[in-house]
Amino acid sequence: MQCLLRSPFARVAGLERLNGMFALAIYSRRDRTLILGRDRLGIKLLCYAALPDRAAFASEIKGLLPLLTRVSEISPEALARFFEIGFSSGAKTILQGIRKLEPGTALVIDASLKPRQITYWSALDIQPRAMRIKEVCEGLDPLFDQVLREHMRSDVPFGLFLSGGLDSGILMTRLLRWGNAQLRTFSVGYAGADAGGRACGGSSGHWAEPFLPRGQSEGPGRSGRRGGFMPDDAVQRGSANPTDARLRVPTAMRTD
Length: 256
What we know:
Structural class: alpha/beta
Helix content: 10-25%
Number of strands: 13
């Protein structure tokens, strides 16, 4: 991280060397400059608001609401985008005055409070390569293992969320193959669902503990934990449900 601490420009350039998902803020007292950075795919949310006398940022929209000088109005553009694709994309949130830092970008804010956005990565800059399907398959397997092993680096127990789909099943199979016999897995259940109290994760017979949203009755055979979720932005996608809420396992992997 030393490359991120020398100057504002070095800090922005250093984001290219980070690997993984992140949303970070670095402040230089000497330069009186704030750098906000978001990972390449925008997995971690980072919201900000330009106020008359300060710049504020938070990982959720609700963290900025008490700082607004007036009640924020609904953004017509973000609302139209929600009705079109099911969520608000780009830099606009559902509330005017609060914006999202776009994926692969950094925001530089100096003492003048004038934000300057810099794109440090874009998928459009990736040059396509002609490859045969055999080459792709041979390269995917070791890359998959490398990424998964990096996600296993943890000083606390980790678990896995099971969606019932192919992706989470593959992750669990690979983790069990590497000797994670005591792997904790979780799935989301709702009152009245047909899945029963416990869901089976794959053909290995490894069982997942159900996680019930707050207000859902456990019912016969259900013993899942409860949790609540109130989305900040306009979203109508199942992958946005925070199934990692209020679990005893400190770290969990998800596949969306």
